[in-house]
Amino acid sequence: MMESSPLPSPGKRAEKLFGLFLPCLSLALSPGCAGDADAGSTSAGPPTREVNGASAATVGSDVRDLIAALTPMAADAPPVELNEWYLRRRRLLERVRDMGPAWGEEALRVYHDRPSTYPEVLSGLLDVAAHTCPEKTVELLVPLITEYGADLHIRTKACSFLATAAPELALQVLEPLIKDPPKGQTYPPRERMLSAWDEAARKTDKDRSNLLCLVATDATNEMDLRHLATRLLGTFESRQGRQALELLMVESGSNTYVRRLATQSLIKTLPEDELCALVRKVIEREADVTFQIFLDNVLQENCR
Fold first, then answer.
1. 26 is a domain residue
2. Taking 60 as the threshold, does the pLDDT of residue 215 lie above it?
3. Which candidate, 219, 204, 212, 218, places its Cα nearest to that of 242?
4. How sure is the predictor about 54, in pLDDT bands with cuts at 50, 70 and 90?
5. Span 249-301, pLDDT tens digits
6. Is residue 223 in some structural domain?
7. Has residue 178 been placed in a domain?
8. Domain residues for 282?
9. Among 105, 113, 156, 107, CA closest to 4
């Protein structure tokens, strides 16, 4: 058996960041975690009392079952078995996410004990904790995102978990890293941070136009990031979003794919008459034959 590696230290920078963001936690977090020392203990033995109508033995059994379900199968396993594993994993995760704080506390206790070297197992434990016991999970998630050390899979998943556990805090942590990540440091992929930021923005009713337009229209950004921002601009209507999408639709020097994504987002957000007038205007001036054909298909499918 492989020796489990120690949990990386958050570091001074993460402690400083968490200290800056701490005041918003009282607003951002939902109530739920039991505060007694028993529940938060990381000792080897689970609490003996009943919690939420279930015994501690039941909670421990559920978490052990979760670890087994999260453990990846061999790469050469038959496709049928891989599919069954995926479905079993998803069902169990969905069930345990809906349980009470005791399940999250046990998941955190086991996470600290490092029961496995598989990132999928460790991130799954954090997933359950973020849904069922957010207050005690947030302090782990911020350093995972901002500090180098943990497996990149876990760091990437931590972005989404933070959006679940504390959306207001997620906005504050992720937005600067999406706009201008510090040079010389490793962070989760920016498109994954943007996806988590968007999830948090929807939960808090934050206006999404500014950041998405900035990211989508910045030609220096990596294409995966621009593609996601362009798609997300098609999920709501805004004047600023429309202007950005129209700019992308006719962007010279851009790859055709982002232009198609911009057009598809406009199809979702513009009234039919305005969309058709815009497409006809663009197609008259378009020099790219392939994109002309694409726009002609848009007219055929969407315009009477």
1. no
2. yes
3. 212
4. low
5. 998 776 789 999 999 999 999 999 999 999 999 999 999 999 999 999 999 99
6. yes
7. no
8. 209-304
9. 113
Q: Which two tokens stand for residue 296?
A: 């002609």
* 296 within 8 A of 260, measured Cβ to Cβ: no
Q: Domain tally for the chain?
A: 1
With vertex at residue 150, the alpha carbon angle to CA 24 and CA 77, rounded to the nearest 5 degrees, is: 120
Instruction: Find the distance separating the first CA and the last CA of the chain, reported in whole Å.
Output: 66
Is 185 exposed, middle or buried (CB count within 10 Å of its CB: 0-12, 13-18, 19+)?
exposed
State both tokens at 51: 């919690």
pTM comes to 0.79
Question: CA 240 to CA 236: how far, in whole Å?
Answer: 11
Do 154 and 148 meet the contact criterion of CB atoms below 8 Å apart?
no
**pLDDT at 181 > cutoff 70:** yes
- Indicate whether 291 belongs to any domain: yes
Other CB atoms within 10 Å distance of the CB of residue 294: 18
Tokens of 39: 């529940």
